Amino acid sequence: MSQEPAARQPLEPAAADAVRAYAARTRADADRFAGVLEDIAANGLPAVEECTPWENLREAHLARLTAQRPAVA
């Protein structure tokens, strides 16, 4: 007993453009990450003194998210 695949519903043009933009951003992020990994493979890990502690990165990211969030009265 074979089942026919369900017909796909086409996206609205604006939704399709948004999906393509998301895919492009995701691909760019993955390319940057792959570049970092390739650099580590070729040159080893950076010295601890050259690294940013994760706590500092977390706080900076939280500050960016807070700045983007609309103020609540």
The SSE order reads HH
Shape: flat
The span between the termini is 60 Å
Q: Which percent bin holds the helix content?
A: 55-70%
Profile the largest sheet: none
Give a short summary of the structure:
The protein is an all-alpha fold and 73 residues long.
Give a verbal description of the structure.
- This protein is mostly helical.
- It has helices at 13-43, 54-68.
- The longest helix is centred in the middle third of the chain and has 31 residues, at 13-43.
Ordered list of secondary-structure elements with their pairings:
Elements: H1 13-43, H2 54-68
Relevant terms:
73 residues, mainly alpha, 63% helix
